[in-house]
Design a protein that fits this description.
Number of strands: 15
Oligomer: single chain
Keywords: FAD, Flavoprotein
Organism: Parascedosporium putredinis
Strand content: 5-15%
Cofactor: FAD
Radius of gyration: 24 Å
Helix content: 25-40%
GO molecular function: flavin adenine dinucleotide binding; oxidoreductase activity, acting on CH-OH group of donors
Family: Belongs to the GMC oxidoreductase family.
Largest sheet: 4 strands, antiparallel
Length: 486
């Protein structure tokens, strides 16, 4: 779904075929399928580097939550990883099912293959400081030094440079280049979270988590006050007995993905307000100060694409992952844009990030509708059986302005999914790279990380990052295959 959204402002076609290449699914046993109802589509997992799996345990309350979403009218697709994510579905964990070890790029794309790849080198404990672009040279030079400090050295690549520093650090290299690179799409995006309600049960009874009647994790493992890291293990290991399999659960394996038309009957008004901002260009006042005219043009184009997504009954705007009851709701398509800037006192330092959360007030308008949506969700028969009570913002808080204030005071500004700081867009719309990932105006320099996507996907960014890597690999193989020995 997001591939189609990207295609419009970027002028490209869909690239969904790259996504299944990132992971290999270890299918759950028939017993686990019968017990928990796991479903999946194996055609969505055609890779071999990153392993994903379903855990051998779910808290019984997960089914209560699932049943509530179904009662609320959500579809239950077999898998939400097929490019059209909507409804409530199972989501595997990036985890080796045998070792219960997190599966990530360091293992799948380096440790497991390094011994068989003598030309695959990694220089740990060092950092790149600058790209040196000399018009007399075909390829940018790379300056680097030890992280702990030391002399700066220079590498002069023969063919090309692939910049893959991530959405936060990639702009630093273009800004700190010896010769100016194309101006990066400085507005950044990051998913917003926690706009739902806080609920509690009317009674708290410690239960045996292995009992079929258990609905919640034991109260002892849900501290009501902040717990410091040194004391948290003691809660698990000395205060409560839980099935060992529960420790494989990570953050949960089920999630609801909901479109704006399913959240609120006011969606047409919200979309109309976005289009009004486009027509009268009032949206530009919500961009960071000094945004280039090309960035402004790109932002207006993105807003129209987002407006189309928000009125689409099958395009998710809300994500609510859950292992117990839904505790957070993510805004998947924020209109606000942040900045990633060089530290003026030390260009080698970590960039200065300003999320500019809810700079565009329509983001708050959307998140206010989440509160009413979750109130109605908790009024379903599935949840009413547990007698939930709203704790925050409180059932008496119904005024939209008051709800907006609650959201401002409780929101998590980022779910650590930054992107879009060197977008694949036409140069006239603030783009930094073309459809071959090449940086405009610079020879033999490509960017291959999440900075190149124009807007956030309607899901998580891990698989998206791997898909960008697959795209870069295909482009490099096509270009250099004839010049490299087999």
């Amino acid at each position: 779904m997001s591939g189609r959204v990207w295609a419009t402002p970027a002028g490209t076609g869909r690239t969904f075929s790259l996504f299944p290449k990132s992971s290999f699914l270890t299918e759950p046993s028939a017993d686990l399928v019968a017990q928990y109802g796991y479903t999946w589509d194996s055609s969505n997992y055609g890779g071999d580097s990153i392993q994903v799996s379903f855990p051998p345990f779910q808290w019984p309350i997960q089914k209560v939550s699932w049943d509530a979403w179904v009662e609320f009218g959500l579809d239950t697709p077999k898998d939400c990883a097929n490019g059209d994510k909507h409804g409530v579905c199972w989501v595997p964990t990036a985890q080796n099912s045998e070792t219960v070890q997190r599966s990530h790029a360091g293992i799948g794309h380096y440790t497991n293959i390094a011994a068989a790849r003598p030309n695959l080198d990694l220089l740990p404990e060092h950092k790149v400081t600058r790209l040196v672009i000399d018009k007399s040279q075909k390829v940018p030079a790379i300056e680097y030094r030890p992280v702990a400090g030391g002399d700066v050295k220079t590498i002069r690549p023969k063919r090309e440079v692939i910049l893959s520093a991530g959405a936060i650090h990639t702009p630093r290299f273009s800004s700190a280049a010896v010769l100016p690179l194309p101006r990066t799409s400085s507005p950044s995006e990051s998913r917003l979270s926690r706009t739902s309600l806080v609920w509690a049960r009317t009674s708290r009874t410690t239960v045996d988590p292995q009992s079929p009647s258990a609905t919640m994790p034991p109260a002892q493992v849900r501290p009501t006050s902040p717990t410091t890291p040194p004391t948290l293990p003691s809660l698990w290991h000395s205060s409560v007995s839980v099935p060992p399999a529960a420790l494989t659960l990570a953050m949960g394996n089920s999630a609801a993905y909901v479109s704006l038309p399913k959240i609120t009957s006011q969606y047409k008004n919200i979309v109309a307000n976005i289009r009004k901002q486009i027509r009268d260009r009032s949206a530009l006042q919500y961009l960071p100060a000094g945004a280039a005219k090309e960035v402004q043009a790109g932002y207006l184009a993105q807003l129209e694409v987002i407006a189309q997504a928000l009125e689409n009954p099958e395009h998710p705007i809300l994500e609510a992952p859950f292992a117990t009851g839904p505790g957070t709701a993510f805004l998947l398509k924020p209109l606000s844009r942040g900045t990633v800037l060089l530290n003026p006192e030390d260009h080698d330092a970590t960039p200065i990030v300003n999320y500019r959360t809810a700079a565009n007030p329509i983001d708050l308008d959307i998140m206010v509708t989440y509160v009413d949506y979750f109130r109605r969700l908790y009024a379903t028969d599935a949840w009413k059986a547990l007698n939930p009570v709203e704790v925050a913002p409180g059932a008496g808080v119904t005024d939209n302005a008051a709800i907006a204030e609650y959201i401002k005071n409780s929101i998590i500004q980022s779910l650590m999914h930054p992107c879009c700081t060197a977008a694949m867009l036409p140069r006239a719309k603030g783009g930094v790279v073309d459809t071959k990932l090449s940086v405009y105006g610079v020879s033999n320099l490509r960017i291959a990380d999440l900075s190149i996507i124009p807007t956030l996907p309607a899901g998580h960014t891990t698989t998206t990052a791997y898909a960008v890597g697959e795209k870069a690999a295909d482009l490099l193989i096509t270009r250099w295959k004839k010049d490299c020995k087999a």
